[in-house]
Amino acid sequence: MTIITKSISSHRWCRLAASAALVVAMASLGACGTDTELNGKVFDLMGVSSAAQAAAKSEPKLAARSGLVVPPDVSRLPEPGSGSDQATAALATVDDPDRRRVMAAAERERLHKAHCSGELAWKEKAQDRDYVPKSPYGPCGSLGAVVNQ
Fold first, then answer.
1. What b/e readout covers 2-35, taking b as 16+ CB neighbours within 10 angstroms?
2. pLDDT for position 128
3. What is the DSSP string of the chain?
4. Which residues touch 133 (CB under 8 Å, ≥6 apart)?
5. With contact defined as beta carbons under 8 Å apart, do 107 and 78 qualify?
6. Is-contact 113 88, C-beta < 8 A?
7. I need a surface site. Which of 45, 50, 56, 61 has the fewest CB within 10 A?
8. Which value, in Å, is the radius of gyration of the alpha carbons in the chain?
């Protein structure tokens, strides 16, 4: 029994000594200076290398700009706010996805009505007396069939 307790207590001492050695090793590594440099393209892309940090601190070099140039005849300048016609004309040429979606929905509705009224299937309607209008855009209402006959 004493042998078992001695081995357990010695095991605890070994564990304690290993933990102490680990703490001392961590403290000695933590005492190292911050002289570690991260060099390489990967570290440059991440922005952690000394070269990337120095480049971020420097001011960007821009070419000198020329001053504002006033037109030779100031009396020919347009009145402020008179260019709104040109602005609306320019905005009309812009490809707006919302406007395109509204236009597509209106065209789909027009084609649906044309299919249901029989305008697009006039040949089938003329050949078949019992023709029921069909639309690829959805079911045709019974009211539309009654109105169109």
1. eeeeeeeeeeeeeeeeeeeeeeeeeeeeeeeeee
2. 77
3. -HHHHHHHHHHHHHHHHHHHHHHHHHHHHHTS-S-----SHHHHHHT-SHHHHHHHHSPP--PPPP-----S-GGGSPPTTTTHHHHHHHHHTS--HHHHHHHHHHHHHHHHHHHHHTSTTHHHHHH-TT----BTTBPPPHHHHHHH-
4. 115, 116, 117, 118, 121, 125, 140, 144, 145, 148
5. no
6. no
7. 61
8. 42
> Domain coordinates of the chain in residue numbers?
97-149
CA dihedral 94, 98, 104, 105 (to 10 degrees): -150
Pick the more confident residue, 28 or 133: 133
Question: Tokens 């309607």 identify what position?
Answer: 125
User: pTM of the predicted model, to two decimals?
Assistant: 0.34
In tens, the pLDDT along 73-102 reads 877 777 777 766 666 777 777 788 888 899
Residues 115 and 121 sit within 8 Å (Cβ to Cβ) = yes
Q: Which of 86, 147, 95 is nearest to 116 (CA)?
A: 147
